[in-house]
């Protein structure tokens, strides 16, 4: 009897130990269930699709019935998925109302798993939780569109490249191509992630695998759309005009887009500890390049354009908190770090470049 009581007590102790060990994972799972419930509630209130959603549905109908595309410049992947579902269920827009939210929640799960491996469960939950409750992301994920779909493939690309397995890098090439098919301009963000990871890993076989997968998918997408529409166009002409006079729109509206957490991003970028871990480099480049790209547009500025690099924003925000907790931050140390960095880079390039336009570099 005593032995049985002992074994029972031990099992209870082990059970609570497991609960304590994985408490953040359990909280995240509950958070995901709550998120699914919220999506289901708000999607159920939608009576008609928004303008963009209506045309993705029309394009899906056109792909299914072999009619000319209603708007041929729209990325085809979401319409292909809808057409595939309709080929089984019959055409009904109600059936696909929750399609994009499924990709958004899946992106959050992948992001959490990725960050948990390197940064820990608390850090991963902070970044993922803030990303998933972001206003622009939540709203547009309740609609029929491409924001959540493209976010899913960007995050999946990041996950595959961070694994550093050769087979995963080929799959990453495919997901980069699918990012292009889901929302044309977002391929830039996927390519930035690929470029930074390539510079970190420096494995030519991995890089070739990714490029081969990427070119395969893009070739198929462009060819299929061209054969269908007789042309290939990635956007309206008025939306493709870029300028070097960067707009401050996204910085001015940063609090409305990302909340007060955005105020921590400059702290992360200035703190020297941020650059001691190469894992962070991808998120830094992802944020900076994306922000500059969308700020370079001459006329079209929208909150929804920030959705795909929102994980990078919150990663840097959480990183700032981590840096402050572990190392603190002082003005003197930060200035000294950046001064030494600039001097070291100047000396490096001065040593590599033997000549300037006037002759030799002075000793």
Summarize the topology.
Blueprint: H1 2-21, H2 23-44, H3 51-65, H4 77-89, H5 99-119, H6 121-132, H7 135-141, H8 147-163, H9 166-182, H10 187-201, H11 204-229, H12 249-252, H13 254-258, H14 265-270, H15 281-295, H16 310-327, H17 331-352, E1 355-356, E2 359-360
Antiparallel strand pairs: 1-2
Helix pairs in contact: 2-5, 2-6, 3-4, 5-6, 5-8, 6-16, 8-9, 8-10, 9-10, 9-11, 10-15, 15-16
Short summary:
With 363 residues, this protein is mainly α.
Descriptive overview:
- The chain has helices at residues 2-21, 23-44, 51-65, 77-89, 99-119, 121-132, 135-141, 147-163, 166-182, 187-201, 204-229, 249-252, 254-258, 265-270, 281-295, 310-327, 331-352; strands at residues 355-356, 359-360.
- With 363 residues, the chain is mostly helical.
- Mean pLDDT is 86; it is low at 352-363.
Radius of gyration: 24 Å
Please tally the β strands and state the result: 2
DSSP helix count?
A: 17
Strand order of the largest sheet: 1-2
Helix content: over 70%
Mind summarizing the main beta sheet?
2 strands, antiparallel
Annotation keywords:
17 helices, 363 residues, disordered C terminus, two-stranded antiparallel sheet, mainly alpha
